[in-house]
Amino acid sequence: MAKAPVRNRRSTKRGMSFKSNTYFYDLPDVPTKEISALTNTKPAIATSVGHGLKTGDVVWLESEENGAINGYYLVDVSNEDTFALMILDGEDIGTITDAKFTTPKRYSFCDATSVKISAFKTKEINVTTICDEDSVVELETEPGTISLSGLWEPDKAVQSFLEDMAEEKETIFFTMKPKGSKRMRGYQVKITSYDWDGKSEDKWQFAMELKINGRGRKLDMTTGAK
């Protein structure tokens, strides 16, 4: 009996390679670009004639009328005069007439050899009172963390900047878009530790811990806000 021909199984690639477009953003300058309107939608849409932004840019938004909106945002550009602010919920901001924005300085970050992002954490809190017949437990959300390690080169502008921000305990912005992914993610972060070490016949290494401040921002670069 003739044997059936052997068929080669087509190989498929699984997972994504460890490559990413990764950036840190500096502290903002005083915002000077005016926003004439912010919609009460989710996400909020800003009107600023001739804003000059493109989808995926990062802005710092500021208002004296409602300081709760102050922060870094990824933007999804609708046209030359309007853009969406990720993840600003316009349903909760009321009417704001004094909002302004600026685009902070960006540092490319290609030095990491390991990245771990825990976007959020939860823990159980026992809130049982003397009047409860059964145990009552609530979930509480804790700030997430980002752990980075890699090659330490202290004379590079980005690493000097990060060391300064760690010492000054400032909140900055971090974005990552894995190559091959359509989504960009952004986080307001504060550096809680910045260490470096080395040994003979090896390269200097760094390890950095970041604490996430608030919700992460997520943007689908092909279809817009998510």
TrEMBL record:
It comes from Snodgrassella alvi. Gene3D superfamilies: 2.40.30.20. InterPro entries: ATP_synth_asu-like_sf, Phgtail_TP901_1. This is Phage tail protein. Pfam families: Phage_tail_2. It comes from the Bacteria.
